[in-house]
Amino acid sequence: MTTLVTTARRGTRASRTVGDVLFTALNTAGFVLVALICAYPFYYLVINSISANDVSALGNVRLWPTGLHLANFREVFSINGLSTAAAVTIARTVIGTSATVFASAFLGFMFTQERMWGRLFWYRFTVTTMYFSAGLIPVFIVMKNLGLTNNFLVYILPLVVQPFFIILVKTYVEGLPREMQEAAEVDGANIVQVFFRIYLPSMTPILATVAIFAAVAQWNSFQDTLIYVTDQSLYTLQYLLYMFINQASSLAQAAQNADGNIGLVASAATTQTPTSIRMTVSVIVVLPIIFIYPLFQRFFVKGIMLGAVKG
Amino acid sequence: MTAVQVRAPHAAPESTPPITGPRPSNPPRRKSMVMLLCIAPFLVLIFLFSYFPLFGWVYSLYDYKPALGLSGSEFVGLQWFQMLVSSPTQLAQIGQVLLNTLAISFLGIAASVLPLGFAVMLNEVKAPWFKNAVQTLTTLPNFISWVLVYVIAFSLFSSSGLVNDVLVDSGLVTAPLKFLDSDQHVWLSMAAWSVWKTLGWGAIIYLAAISGIDQSLYESARIDGAGRFQLMRYITVPQLMPTYIVLLLLSIANLLNNGMEQYYVFQNAFNKEHLQVLDLYVYNIGMTGNSLSLATAVGMLKSLVSVALLFAVNGIAKRVRGESIV
């Protein structure tokens, strides 16, 4: 692995004074502490989700898993609504991310086309929306009037156009050689062909950045379900997790009592405790992020730096 | 985002195609309209979700009842705006909400030196693998939702959570401490959770800036006999100041916008008084209290002040740095 943000080595031959050594030790210790504070909570969730439920319920799982109980993951999916929520979350992440990436790529490219009628105006029309919002209630009423409440499209349509991503892509395209387009046009390609055949393939790094940001946002989104959705079949994992934690006690009863059927959090004769359910669902929610994000880290560090150049 | 490059909309392409090439089949004018048509669907989305809702500000002049629609609702003029400042109770409530908003924002601004310090210190770490590990682990919390942050907070800090278990087991306290269901230090704990979530991520931009510092500055300083701390103090930190100031100004422009998700998931009957920020207040009175018009009025005032702040901050940036930041 290469350093994420490379800084030049310097002063390796500098005299190692006592103060220097002390500083290095303290600095390293400080970062170990900060890294632990950031990482331990995730580890805590994982070891609790795979430990015996009665032990984890007592809060006795602190350093390593006790009494391995992997069945938690299977059992949790038998809770009503959880597999639906997982499907909705996966669907919105895949569809929403694709739509956002496509729109960002296309608009970012089109806004570099000086021949487009009123280009500067439309570019500003788009970018200005970053800086104001009509507010929660007017937006809610518009969504309602458009029939987007209790509609899967509310997870997709409002997030298609995101000015920040468009700026990132536009900056990137401006750095590509202009001659690519001219050559293709001489060969008779129209603007759509130029975009798909010539520019899209060379945008991969910046689109990877946009994709990971958009996907994380989709996966993590909670507020839109809260505001626009009351239909249980459209609940997302985050929303369900929030409900689970708020209904901790009633949930325990529901899970342990095979007949208990209070709304979403129903049935399944299991050994589930509120703790085990919370931990297991949390792990299901966070695992994709933990796995995917180190792979993409290189990309979005570059992406944010590109954004920083403009910001 | 620096100012958009200013170019005449109809300016000719930077280099015209060679004259010997085939003539374009369409007249240029038509071609430029076709390009606009290509992006038109997206422009419609922008209009629908960003500009069209602005008309909704008229709801603040009505006693809007969703069942009746706007035409059936009563026009009440500025009644809602007057109501915000009418009674001492109302005034106290909105004052408290504003105080919470500003307090949490200012704590956030005070904490904005932390990512800078983090980056400067991390830059002093020599081993690349250690640097990498620290960066990976500390940026992780930035990528989880506030709901998950709350789950973590709950498992660690609730009365039956890990921290209280450890404290009670070790005999340091006799009864579990109320970290989450208490009204004490709410602003601080909210700011602390924000720091936990964003510290590592916030440092990335400074690390990037550090990698861009001219190495000859360090070399000449070292020749002049500067030690490690002097290099940090007189070169690294001053070189990061422009980045810091841009981010600082942006956070000032966002003084009133601290979002609602964090506060929504952390709110409960005990901490609500000091945790309710403007965005959450609008949600609470509008969506759960059903005072749609009052919530619109509050949201509208907030938006207007925010835009004004943005312009003010941008103006300052222009004067001080000679370039705008938005």
Automatic annotation (TrEMBL), chain A:
GO biological process: transmembrane transport
PROSITE patterns per record: ABC_TM1 (PS50928)
Family annotation (Gene3D superfamilies): MetI-like
KW Zinc-finger (keyword) present: no
Membrane topology type: Multi-pass membrane protein
Protein localization: Cell membrane
Keyword flag Transmembrane: yes
Domain ABC transmembrane type-1: 86-296
Key words, A-Z: Cell membrane, Membrane, Transmembrane, Transmembrane helix, Transport
GO cellular component terms, semicolon-separated: plasma membrane
Transmembrane stretches, start-end: 21-43, 85-109, 121-141, 153-173, 194-216, 277-296
Assigned protein family: Belongs to the binding-protein-dependent transport system permease family.
Protein name according to UniProt: Sugar ABC transporter permease
